[in-house]
Write a structure and sequence with these properties.
The protein is globular. The protein folds into two domains: about 280 residues, 3-Layer(aba) Sandwich (Aldehyde Dehydrogenase, Chain A, domain 1); about 180 residues, Aldehyde Dehydrogenase, Chain A, domain 2 (3-Layer(aba) Sandwich), CATH 3.40.309. Helix 2 crosses helix 6. About 35% of the residues lie in helices and about 20% in strands. The protein is built from 16 helices and 20 strands. It binds nicotinamide-adenine-dinucleotide. Nicotinamide-adenine-dinucleotide binds next to helix 7 and helix 8. Belongs to the aldehyde dehydrogenase family.
């Protein structure tokens, strides 16, 4: 792949929020210990945006040390002060919304999503910071009190993917530090710029140096070094199941807990009585938003056979309306993130064809795009539940339609993958909605909405191989704490000795 620099030969990202070639350790913007860098490109234009350090295990060690130095003071701050610092961070983010939107759109290569959600997410988390509470416990003696304390782990680690780097960074870092931990986080090598910009704003907001440390780099290098570090006390990981398993293995060796936010193959179950005027645009948006590179993307449509043909026709018509193009054009869908993903998604489209599924629309690279990693929104019909395109996460704008006869079969097919992240049900019948909400094996269920969206403070996470642990809800801050039971007796005068009874004394 040829990376184009602009005519001046310099990287093209123009933002004071990104320090070119530097990452954040202990409040300082530093290169990697090796001096090597990674090119971050705009996947729509294949232009170089910026360079970031190729972090090493030594850099992770330096970051852990910085986080250890910052920890005692951060832990001991009153929770209200920590909350206020998070609110200040959220305010600064909001002031820079337009710039952050541009950075994230360029590095992910997608059309603008409008104001980024990070300020709101952080305000929600900040509101939890001073509500970390224990409970009082009954005791065997009136001289005693018992209670629990919720305490931070210390230095914690996190690894995030590239598909929504800003929100992932805000929710993972926000919850961990709200609880009083200090953190070492590695963003994805493909999209590390929004996280670096957010970290810069955190410093400006007054969050002390060393509380947030961002080590950029590759997964097998800086990434692997974080859970393997013996003084990291807890981990959060968002990414693919394969990498999640490797991170979990490293955590097992060090006997530390973690949460995993992994992939999905989310079903959209459409019953014959569904409001298709609402369902069709929502389902197409759900698979083309971010070019289908969303863990929650509803990538399987499980439809009652009686409306199959009508639905396929309407989905295809809607998909053909999706305008594809670069982030700065007036379009609905951008490119995929990288050449590797491009190859992977096109490979799955071939697999679908080979398995006998019918390409109703899309199925290749849109004409006129010899640069950038574009792929057409693609609809497959005639898909059977066991085909690989119906079982494996494609992470692209590829939708597979599977016909079923009734509710029982719909549940079987919807639950018939290893994943369990999000599931949607489209029906006008409340009874069907209630039964399906209970029967679907997913961490989030949307009734008459795609992506399980629209809820404030909803805990987010997976069933089955989609992971465990929940982010974003009120409990997400508690998850970054450990519980200590305190049993406390005051200084009690010693009880008088019971005199021996006469018969005992004779023995
Ligand atoms: P990935 O697993 O390849 O990479 C994720 C992160 O892990 C990156 O920062 C990467 O550098 C790092 N990494 C890679 N190998 C590593 C190793 N051996 N040790 C430590 N870190 C390593 O995933 P991806 O392709 O970047 O992201 C897409 C995946 O993320 C999809 O499966 C998607 O569903 C999932 N995802 C899940 C959620 C969720 O909330 N459930 C959200 C977004 C994305």
């Amino acid at each position: 792949m040829t990376i184009t620099e602009n005519t001046t030969g310099r990287p093209t990202l123009d933002s004071s929020l990104v320090v070119d070639g530097a990452m954040l350790i202990g409040g300082d913007w530093v290169p990697s210990s090796s001096g090597d860098t990674i090119d971050v490109i705009n996947p729509a234009t294949v232009e170089l945006l910026a360079r970031v350090p190729r972090g090493t295990a030594d850099d992770v060690e330096a970051a852990v040390q910085a986080a250890e130095r910052a920890f005692p003071a951060w832990r001991d701050l009153p929770a209200t002060v920590r909350a206020n610092l998070l609110f200040a961070w959220a305010n600064l983010i909001e002031q820079h919304n337009a710039e952050l939107d541009q950075i994230e759109s360029q590095e992910v290569g997608r059309p603008s999503w409008g104001p980024p959600p990070m300020a709101g997410q952080l305000r929600f988390i900040a509101g939890q910071a001073d509500k970390v509470q224990g409970v009082s416990l009954p005791t065997y003696s009136p001289e005693q009190v018992g209670f629990t304390l919720r305490e931070p782990y210390g230095v914690v680690g996190a690894i995030i993917p590239w598909n929504a780097p800003g929100p992932m960074f805000a929710t993972e870092v926000g919850a961990a530090i709200a609880a009083g931990n200090t953190i070492v986080i590695k963003p994805a090598e493909d999209a590390p710029l929004t996280p670096l910009a957010l970290a810069k704003l955190a410093l400006e907001a007054g969050i002390p140096p060393g509380v947030i440390n961002v080590v950029t780099g590759y997964g097998g290098e800086a990434g692997a070094a974080i859970p393997a570090h013996p003084r990291i006390r807890r981990m959060g990981f968002t990414g693919s199941p394969q990498t999640g398993a490797a991170v979990m293995e490293a955590c097992a060796k060090n006997l530390i807990p973690l949460h995993l936010e992994l992939g999905g193959k989310s079903p959209q179950v459409v019953f014959a009585d569904a409001d298709l005027d609402a369902a069709v645009p929502a389902m197409v948006q759900g698979i083309t938003l971010n070019t289908g590179q969303i863990c929650a993307a509803g990538s399987r449509v499980v439809v009652q056979r009686s409306i199959h043909d009508e639905l396929v026709e309407r989905l295809a018509a809607e998909m053909r309306q999706v305008r594809v193009g670069a982030w700065h054009e007036s379009v609905n869908m951008g490119p995929l993130i990288s050449a590797r993903q491009h190859e992977r998604v096109l490979g799955y489209i071939d697999l679908g064809r080979e398995a006998g599924a019918e390409v109703v629309t899309g199925g290749g690279v849109p004409s006129g795009y010899d640069r950038g990693f574009f792929v057409e929104p693609t609809l497959f019909a005639g898909v059977s539940a066991d085909m690989r395109i119906a079982q494996e996460e494609i992470f692209g704008p590829v939708l597979s339609v599977i016909a079923v006869d009734d509710e029982t079969e719909a549940v079987e097919v919807a639950n018939g993958t290893d994943y369990g992240l999000v599931a949607s049900v489209w029906t006008r019948d409340v009874g069907t909605a209630v039964r399906m909400s209970r029967k679907l094996q997913a961490g989030q269920v949307g009734v008459n909405n795609a992506l399980g969206a629209g809820v404030i403070g909803g805990p987010f996470g997976g069933y089955k191989n989609s992971g465990f642990g929940r982010t974003m809800g009120a409990d997400s801050v508690l998850d970054w704490t450990q519980v200590k039971t305190v049993s406390m007796r005051g200084a009690v005068p010693p009880a008088p000795r019971t005199p021996l009874r006469a018969e005992q004394a004779q023995d």
